[in-house]
């Protein structure tokens, strides 16, 4: 787990304007920067980035957060990956509790990764440059209906038909990084002598593969003429793992948000050709089966995933693997479908023959996960016999066990029960399903907490906007506030504790990230403050002091009234009454002095 202190230090060092500016065109507008929101369609900019708050906020869709939150929402990174990305850009090394690597060794590892990344970038630039004069390669791409614009968007290039063409890019052609990046191959004889080095990719159309940060991490190379392999991928390297990456995801992110779904295909040309034909929300697996990591990445981008496969046997087997990878992420708020085109078509040819509307109809009519699951377990079994129904249940058991308890799983269980002449409860018992959905009773509703109002709301807003002010609150102030806000005492104490722990460097962005990570109830308040102009800290300190005085005054007044109503018959009660009266007078004088200073 990354220490909170490191997160604070990181947010102090990064500039959110620089981070967001990598992906969104920003223009100065008063104290803030403005741009078109990357999270929804808009023609007039309502997306603001505050350099003083180190926070972004969209007045159109309400999206907001820190630099870390932006990378998570925009790039689909996980929290740890977003932190590592930001840390790398400011020269920080992320500490990890399970990281036993010595600092010097970790620094060496990071230096090697940067060398590999630099090599891939330089090679990509070289291949793009070569495409300009490669007539055969250009004729092939034009023949596939691609324009120069779409080739430029995806960074398509050409690897010349030479054994060591990369020597012109890398004067040190013998560098170890070229082998480790998968750009060249070392071949030696049986005795390990007479080493010969040559380019891995030769006479191929080159498709650069980018990670979620836009960095080139690998290539897919397509042969121009006949030959095998038709597609040659980069090998597994420290930068590139085929089972974790999706071709075109970096380029498709905004289109996926705009379309409301992502279409997963089987090849590079499917992605590029469909983008050319008006479907830019398409990605592809990299010559490997769909994995759980692929599905997890897609689920971060959208709630609607559609897998497209050929209708032949190989396509059905690939679809089965995609189904199995998707089951742990299938949920009531997710839609996962499977599209099977006629065997004579791939997505590119189908759109060209039937048009955009025809392909859109195919997408709309794709088979839901629930239907596909039941189809694959029943297709080759005879439901008219007990043996056939038992075989269906046998094949369905591991699939349903892979799903989380949900309404969707219950619907599939009910469908399976009907097909196999059993009951949902019998299937859940037989399959040993965790938290059987058919027998779970509805949980009682959570008690409604009164939202903060008045002074308590004022204090909380001040502490969220300026968490450094938490240091101004002493035990008496906290006691007074908690006395009047029993419903929200935990929220108040959480704010104060977080602000005091962060110390003098505490900021709105730091606290917001801390509250987001802890799953607190402050999101609405954070959004409101993010949308407001930056407030002056000194003015906020005076406002907080005034609110604290009022709260203390209320608590003292309440206790004085209780003592008076009790008759103050005991000496200690009388002494307490006098003590409280003096405190009340002092608070009144403090308020008058503050007014005079203003």
CATH fold name of the largest domain = DNAb Helicase, Chain A
Uncertain spans: 438-449
Return the domain count: 5
Shape: globular
Distance between the termini: 47 Å
Mean pLDDT: 85
Subunit structure: Monomer. Interacts with DnaB.
Domain Toprim: 260-342
Family: Belongs to the DnaG primase family.
Protein name: DNA primase
Task: Write a structural description.
By secondary structure, this protein is of the alpha+beta class. The chain folds into 5 domains: 86 residues, Zinc finger, CHC2-typedomain (DNA Primase, Chain A); 127 residues, DNA primase, catalytic core, N-terminal domain (DNA primase DNAg catalytic core, N-terminal domain), CATH 3.90.980.10; 123 residues, Dna Topoisomerase Vi A Subunit, Chain: A, domain 2; 60 residues, Pheromone ER-1 (Up-down Bundle); 144 residues, DNAb Helicase, Chain A. Helices cover 51% and strands 12% of the residues. It has a 5-stranded antiparallel beta sheet with strand order 1-2-3-4-5. The protein has a 5-stranded mixed beta sheet with strand order 13-12-14-15-16, with helices on both faces. The chain has a 4-stranded antiparallel beta sheet with strand order 6-9-10-11, covered by helices on one side. A hairpin with an 8-residue loop joins strand 7 and strand 8. The longest helix has 30 residues. It is globular. The relative contact order is 0.07. It catalyses: ssDNA + n NTP = ssDNA/pppN(pN)n-1 hybrid + (n-1) diphosphate.
